[in-house]
């Protein structure tokens, strides 16, 4: 039986199934050169943690490394996942400015008013990569399925970037499965990585 994580803010209950630590393995696939016929494929292991600090955003931390011969660390990711809604006076920010007034979301009935036409919730995800790239994703969560598509990104000069990205997450028989597709500059979306993770905490 699923138990709601302790202290989880009402606004984050649609993400409840994600909260915790996950570990598993997956495969990355990419072409070193655009003219290559077959992509290079490598196996990796990954650890993801979704947590919360009482605010209206879920924190996300991912670390991964190649396995087998020539094992090496892969780029990590950190980010925030939240429901997509207009900022309220009660929300903190920008910076350390303290929000004022009462929050609009106080009951499950209030939360239900945020459902989209498909019966799920619109969400936004911000992700930061160590290579100097920050991404903003727009997406939807419905039940235990999450669909994301990059909406905007910014990078330091000289950073390696791609044109577009989509990600799909889903809970299947207790495991967290995800798929990542990317489109390099001038290219179309192609599969890039996927993994199956099991809850460890």
Compact overview of the structure:
The chain is mostly beta strands and 201 residues long. It has 1 helix and 10 strands.
Descriptive account of the structure:
This protein is mainly β. It has a single domain (10-86, 104-199), classed as Lipocalin (Beta Barrel). The protein has one helix and ten strands. It has one helix at 108-112, and strands at residues 20-30, 40-52, 58-66, 73-83, 121-129, 133-142, 145-155, 164-172, 175-183, 190-199. Strands 1-2-3-4-5-6-7-8-9-10 form a ten-stranded antiparallel beta barrel. A hairpin with a 5-residue loop joins β2 and β3 (58-66). The chain is globular, with a radius of gyration of 18 Å. The two termini are 15 Å apart. The mean pLDDT is 92.
Fold blueprint:
Blueprint: E1 20-30, E2 40-52, E3 58-66, E4 73-83, H1 108-112, E5 121-129, E6 133-142, E7 145-155, E8 164-172, E9 175-183, E10 190-199
Unreliable parts: none
Question: What is the element string, with H for helices and E for strands?
Answer: EEEEHEEEEEE
- Considering the protein shown, what is the CATH homologous superfamily? Calycin beta-barrel core domain
Helix content: under 10%
Structural class: mainly beta
Helical element count?
Answer: 1
| Cα Rg | 18 Å
- The CATH C-level name is Mainly Beta
Taken as a percent bin, the fraction of beta residues is over 45%
Which architecture does the CATH hierarchy give at level 2? Beta Barrel
CATH topology: Lipocalin
Choose one word for the global shape: globular
Mean pLDDT: 92
Instruction: Name the strands of the widest sheet in spatial order.
Output: 1-2-3-4-5-6-7-8-9-10
Main sheet properties: 10 strands, antiparallel, barrel
Terminal CA distance reads 15 Å
How many individual β-strands? Answer: 10
Total number of distinct structural domains: 1
């Amino acid at each position: 039986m699923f138990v709601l994580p302790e202290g989880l803010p009402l606004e984050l209950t649609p993400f409840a199934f994600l909260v915790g630590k996950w570990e598993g393995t997956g495969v990355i696939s990419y072409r070193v050169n655009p003219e290559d016929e077959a992509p290079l494929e490598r196996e990796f292991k990954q650890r993801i943690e979704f947590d919360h600090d009482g605010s209206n955003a879920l924190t996300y931390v991912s670390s991964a490394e190649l396995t087998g011969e020539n094992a090496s660390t892969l780029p990590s990711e950190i980010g925030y996942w939240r429901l997509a809604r207009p900022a309220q006076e009660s929300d903190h920010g920008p910076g350390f400015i303290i929000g004022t007034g009462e929050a609009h979301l106080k009951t499950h009935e209030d939360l239900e008013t945020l459902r989209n036409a498909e019966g799920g919730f619109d969400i936004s995800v911000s992700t930061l990569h160590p290579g100097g790239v920050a991404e903003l994703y727009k997406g939807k969560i419905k039940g235990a399925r999450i669909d994301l598509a990059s909406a905007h990104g910014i990078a330091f000069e000289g950073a390696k970037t791609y044109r577009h990205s989509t990600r799909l997450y889903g809970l299947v028989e207790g495991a967290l499965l995800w798929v990542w597709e990317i489109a390099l500059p001038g290219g179309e979306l192609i599969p890039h990585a996927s993994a199956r993770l099991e809850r460890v905490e």
